Amino acid sequence: MLIKVLIGLLLLSLPIFGSEIATTATSAPEIRFEQKDTLGGGKVELFIGQQTKPIGYALYKKEAKSTAQIFSIRIEHGFRGKGLGTQLLQKTIQFLHALHFTTITVLAQPDVKEYPNINEYSKAVEKLIAWYEKNGFVIVKKYYKHNYIRSADMEYQVKETEEGKKEKESSSSKE
What we know:
By secondary structure, the chain is of the alpha+beta class. It contains 4 helices and 7 strands. α2 links the parallel β4 (67-75) and β5. The protein has helices at 2-13, 84-98, 118-134, 162-174; strands at 31-37, 41-48, 56-64, 67-75, 103-108, 138-145, 148-157.
């Protein structure tokens, strides 16, 4: 038992991904995002501190002229439960809005390999749907299998800010 505790303490003191994250009791690690956009889609990556390997990412693709789909969003296991997924989602929404997408869709469907049985998977689906709803998405359609929710199509409507409206009016009056 003592050996397990010592190994646990040793593991906690090891650097994450090869370099330490500087934190104190009053400061959080630096969070940075990098966007990579291509013609049909792209990626928003999340980094902690000076890490060179992302600890999370969101992949998206263009569905229609003003609609993008976030088809994958992931945070590494050791970093979950700290609000980083929410920050990544919000940053991705902001980035897609800057690319003039007004509707963002997702398929709320957890990775089935992470759940050993249908009951745990079903709870994970419900939790994921609630997380997307908390972040402004609404359910468009639910999919069921054997009376369990398997997944849900969800949608987010980008709200125009006052600053964005003024910018649009300014650019249209110049034309």
